[in-house]
Amino acid sequence: MRYRHLLSYSVLLLTSTVTMTRAHEQQQMAFGKTDIGIQNQVHALVDDLVQAESITKSCSSCISLLHIIKKMSYMPESFLVNTLTKVCKKTQKVDDEVCEGVMREQAPIIRKVLPSMTISGRDGHLMCAAILNSCPYPEVEEWNVPFPKPKPDVLPITQKSKGQTLTVLQLSDWHIDPHYQPGAEVICDKPICCRPAYTDYTNITQSASIWGEYNCDTPLSLIQSLLEYIPKIERNITFGIMTGDVPPHEVWATLPVLKTQLIQDDTYRLLHSHFDSPTLLHTMLYPAVGNHEAAPSNNFPLRSSNVPIEIEKNYLDLKWLYKSLAISWERWVPFRSQADLELNTGSYAIRPVDGLKLISLNTNFCYILNWWLYEHPMQKDPNGIFSWLIKELQDAEDKLERVWIIGHIAPGDNTCFHDYANYYNQIVDRYAHIISAQFFGHTHKDEMTIFYGHGKNQTAQEAISVGYIAPSITPYLDLNPGFRVYKIDTVTFEVVDSITYTANLDQASTWLDGPDWHIEYSAREAFNSSGAKLNSATSPLSAAWWHNVTVDMENDEATFDKYYQYTTKSSPMTKACVGDCKKNAICNIRAGKSEQRCDYESDVFNGEGVRKKSYKPEAHNCAFNMEGIRARRQRISGF
Ligand SMILES: *[C@@H]1O[C@H](CO)[C@@H](O)[C@H](O)[C@H]1NC(C)=O
Ligand SMILES: *[C@@H]1O[C@H](CO)[C@@H](O)[C@H](O)[C@H]1NC(C)=O
Ligand SMILES: *[C@@H]1O[C@H](CO)[C@@H](O)[C@H](O)[C@H]1NC(C)=O
Ligand SMILES: *[C@@H]1O[C@H](CO)[C@@H](O)[C@H](O)[C@H]1NC(C)=O
Ligand SMILES: *[C@@H]1O[C@H](CO)[C@@H](O)[C@H](O)[C@H]1NC(C)=O
Q1: How many structural domains is the chain composed of?
Q2: Is the pLDDT of residue 637 over 90?
Q3: Distances (CA, A) of 263 to 224, 248, 254, 356, 586
Q4: Which of 79, 345, 621, 624 could pair covalently with 75 via S-S, beta carbons 3.0-4.6 A apart?
């Protein structure tokens, strides 16, 4: 039901019963008779293809649909928008306005990208695999990432831990909704509710609380209470990080760009007022770029992208975004790094404290819903992001510094391209001795991702790095709101504890003095066991330790159940996870690179359009895969 709406947007832009709006009718009038003939034929063809959602179950239907959309890319834009909207409505059964808006905003990009793609070859199969899980996932194109120097045989001796810690705050997935209104309808036809525009005030089923709802994005009141609460529990925060996604999930109406930009400007003004104030948080904040920062959502072009040259479409180059972020991040991100930020399409490096380099990566260049990335030939090092990362890491190695990497989407996420994640893993492997920790967001859940040596087994000995995936502030969807505090070794900058805070939103009606923010758990306390032992009070939560925690999860039901409950910040909507769900969840923690995940099928595909292994569509009907498809779609709906 609700969750159907969630499938909303992406499945997609590929994918819809035309209730023509007046504007569309007028556009159609502008076509000749033949064009209308073609349009009707195309619509009939598309109807067949999307019958019973066959494009999500059959690779060949998905490829056929892409062939049609590619042909339409050479025709007037309105034609493509109409057809994509039709496919969206047909398959998504989502509110008409959502399909229409997403297509109106994103079809112009699809129209530029599809003509370059080899639909029957790797490009088309990758798109169908990555987004719809309807084709086997093409094998990673092998690439040995080049490094300026080999890994040192004898690792340089760095300073030893003094057994002291400092405190770092992580905020993620803010998703403020300026239109949130207490008392508005919680149950609506849009992906997010609690807005007056979607409320029939004469007949309200459930009215929104002051502090938020499981169906809705974040109200300002929740954010304010959180920002006021943090300095009460942590008096001495060394710095904060914010791993992306400031705007709401209003993916069908992100334009004009000024609208999305204003939400971000206002947010950063509010953050500055708390972080910069000597009486409030009084510390620095280092942000990363989320997929929702772009308008239209997700679409970060490459320097080589075929961005439309028409003046009315030049916002698609996102120069406005990088410029406005550089201004919003002033004071926290110093001038030199700001120049980096703009030149470097959203990534920068800084030194928050002596001995630590923090690299903020714009990971939207790994995101399967960033259409620009499908332009042929697909780039192995999109916007030179890997070369830049390696340069920064090599510089840190030469200077005997430690490094943190922060970003929005973790490379092990099921929305990150396998190829990107594979190359990224090689880099983590090469510099694992100096990368003390990584921090991500995007999933809204409280999770982690373990990296292993490239081509090595998934064992404690081979575990090399951990990505902390912090919980969202937004309760969307069916989650409690949350944030993280880390205790960090002052010398090695390794994580000594990860403490998650939450508030039980289902009790919002009983909160007299605002949200009941409280510690949900400390990872040290929750997961220390005889199998995953912490010897001293200051021994770090190493990658090997986290691997052993996942072994505990396999062997001990209580440990897994605890982990799983925490993923939703102990939301009462958490469903039981046993059998394949449990197996996949553990497998996915160990998938530092997304190709190692277990929630969809992979297969062998040689890149020339010839499959080496036969594809079994029926396999996609079994429960195992359906879980994967559901999870994928849920995520795709704009997380
Ligand atoms: C705050 O933390 C820093 C380490 O980041 C430490 O040097 C300093 O002494 C602490 N200040 C107080 C008042 O605890
Ligand atoms: C009130 O809303 C419910 C659910 O949306 C609907 O079933 C019902 O018919 C509505 N009642 C009136 C009087 O509109
Ligand atoms: C992985 O483990 C298996 C069995 O434990 C072993 O035979 C194999 O050599 C290992 N592979 C690597 C790359 O270490
Ligand atoms: C971890 O648990 C063990 C018992 O399994 C206990 O002896 C040890 O003190 C604990 N370590 C920490 C740091 O809590
Ligand atoms: C992880 O488990 C292995 C195998 O039981 C053990 O040898 C190793 O010491 C453990 N490491 C940590 C950090 O818990």
Answers
A1: 2
A2: no
A3: 15, 9, 10, 31, 37
A4: 79
Residues with CB under 6 A from ligand 4: 528-530, 533-534, 537
Domain boundaries, position 34: 7-137+602-638
Give the side-chain half-sphere CA count within 13 A for 410.
35
Model pLDDT, residue 86: 84
CATH number, domain of 462, equals: 3.60.21
Q: Is the pLDDT of residue 624 over 70?
A: no
Q: For the residues of 531-600, what is the DSSP string, one character each?
A: SS---STT----HHHHHHHHHHHHH-HHHHHHHHHHHTTS-TTPPP--THHHHHHHHHHT-SSGGG-SSS
483-503: pLDDT as tens digits: 999 999 999 999 999 999 999
| pLDDT level of residue 338 (50, 70, 90 thresholds) | confident
Same domain for 456 and 569? yes
My answer on whether 451 and 586 are in the same domain is: yes
Tell whether the model's pLDDT for residue 544 goes beyond 70: yes
Residue ID of nearest Cα to ligand 2 atom 13: 203
Query: What separation in Å is there between the alpha carbon of 463 and the centre of ligand 3?
Result: 14
157-161, 405-409, 416-420: segment of lowest average pLDDT:
157-161
For residue 249, give Cα distances in angstroms to 93, 137, 193, 290. 18, 28, 10, 12
